[in-house]
Design brief:
The chain is of the alpha/beta class. The protein has eight helices and twelve strands. Strand 10, helix 6 and strand 11 form a beta-alpha-beta unit.
Amino acid sequence: MIEFSKEKYVGLVNRMAQNWSPHALPSRAKAPVVSFSFDDFPRSAAKEGAAILAKFGIKGTFFVAGGRLGSRVDGLDYFTEKDLIEVAVAGHEIGCHTFGHIRLPETGRAEIEKDLMRNKIFVQGILGDYTMSSFAYPYGHVNIATKATLGRHFPICRGIQPGMNKARIDFAQLRAIVLDAACNFDRLPKLLDNAVTQNGWLIFFTHDISKNPSPYGCKPEELAKLVQDVIARGIEVLPVKNAVGKMRFS
């Protein structure tokens, strides 16, 4: 009998969901695209992360879980209402990350629907008539059933399976590259070169941005160097929802 740790089991389920892509669509991109995204929305992402993007004149996507408003979790301070407003006014995309940062495969459909509505009401209560088009799976956890459910709510869903989005793209579970303590930043220039030659779409995601980041975040200089490398190659940088237009309708 083969035994799986919980981590390996979750990884297997995620890969099974990635392989289930009946609605994948062909890319029509004529040029490479890069997107930068921030999950959970720690305050440092709103401050340090947004400042780095602003320095280069580019916009990103901030995936918000409303339940983390003003909280402190595992030593990280999370966004305030003012942070959310400032990021949105600056032109960055606000995406959905559920309200309670729930583990979707462990949650019933009715509860998921309730949680998504709660996050929608939360965001609109602060930003007014704002529609979130993009979604990121909390913890990257997704199975076939929840992928189908979320696909009915959002035209764009991002996972954490590494890779480039190209050729035939699954917009219900977009591939992404994590920028964290385990990331080999030295290999990223090669990924950018591949995106240029293949007209691919690379989505980078991280969490907090600080000199002493959590295991899930990165340092300001690491993010800034990556952005600089992207710009130096002439790659267009767009929020996730805008990049979809390039992939489908270029």
